[in-house]
Amino acid sequence: MRQALDRSLTEPNPDQSRLDWLWSLIEPQVNTRTERRIERRIKESRLPERKSLHDFDWGFQPGLDRDHVMELATLRFVAEGKNLLFGGDSGTGKSHIAKALCLLACMANRRVRYSTSEAMLGDLNASLADNSLEEAIKPYVRADLLLVDEVGLEQVERKMASRSGLMQKVLFPRYNANRSTIITSNIPWEAWADYLDDQFGATAIIDRLLHHSHVIVIQGPSYRDWVHQQEAEARNPKPRPRT
After folding, report:
1. Which one has a higher pLDDT value, 67 or 26?
2. Domain shared by 17 and 56, yes or no
3. Eight-state DSSP code of residue 186
4. What is the mean pLDDT of the chain?
5. Prediction pTM value
6. For tag attachment on the chain, is the N or C end more exposed, with fewer CB atoms within 10 Å?
7. What whole-number distance in Å separates Cα of residue 140 and Cα of residue 87?
8. More confident call, 210 vs 52
9. Which tops the pLDDT comparison, 58 or 220?
10. Could you list the residue range(s) of the whole structural domain that residue 77 is in?
11. Positive/negative CA dihedral, 161, 126, 138, 53
């Protein structure tokens, strides 16, 4: 504000109203505080990377309803406490969109928590050893928006956690508090019983996740596989046929 005041005194604007002049002093401070708050939210969220919907290749997945995704970008689903379930094969863009929505939530001053399913279950399972589960579970339960990414890719953590119902201990309180959860998974919803090795537990989880939720299944090719193929072809171009 001091710098803005010095500039306004050095280069006065006679056409500026008193209110506009006052705002010219306050605005830099407001913007700085907003930027710091956003950075703090992003850091606390533990997002591994900053994805945006602007960077998403919509043309590569033409079957994806772009209008629906852009509606989700308004974060109305977070205000309403609805869940968001992304299904589909690996590399179809589920995590990209989910992370982009989380970044938007951070910018909207929402408490966000990101974790892969493997990391979350590993963290909570480790807390059982020293009886610190109650503290370990708080960041996952209290976040306004929780993203549990890559459900189904973990191995040891899932088998160890299933005995203690750790997934339920996170999702049930969130459901009761109307807090939004995003799940990305390549496992069909009807196969979660085999995934959790718990028919009744899986039914209870899916029932709560699907209640008041948006479900998006992306049917399409893997973007990572396509990029890998393009890079391979660039390194080893096919010889042109002789004419």
Report:
1. 67
2. no
3. S
4. 86
5. 0.80
6. C
7. 21
8. 52
9. 58
10. 46-228
11. negative
Residue matched to tokens 């406490």: 81
| Burial tier of 74 (Cβ tally within 10 Å: 0-12, 13-18, 19+) | exposed
Looking at the structure, tell me whether residues 172 and 123 fall in a common domain: yes
Q: How far is CA 159 from the centre of its chain?
A: 25
Give pairs for 157-165: CB < 8 Å, separation 24+.
157/117, 157/118, 157/121, 157/122, 157/125, 158/117, 158/118, 158/121, 158/195, 158/196, 159/197, 160/121, 160/125, 161/121, 161/124, 161/125, 162/196, 162/197, 162/198, 162/201, 164/125, 164/128, 165/198, 165/201
Q: In the prediction, which pLDDT does 163 show?
A: 47
Tens digit of each residue's pLDDT (9 = 90 or more) over 18-45? 888 888 888 888 888 889 999 999 999 9
pLDDT for 230? 57
Look up the CATH number of the domain holding residue 174. 3.40.50.300
Q: With beta carbons less than 8 A apart as the criterion, state whether 98 and 69 touch.
A: no
Q: Which residues contact 172 (CB under 8 A, 6 or more apart)?
A: 204, 208
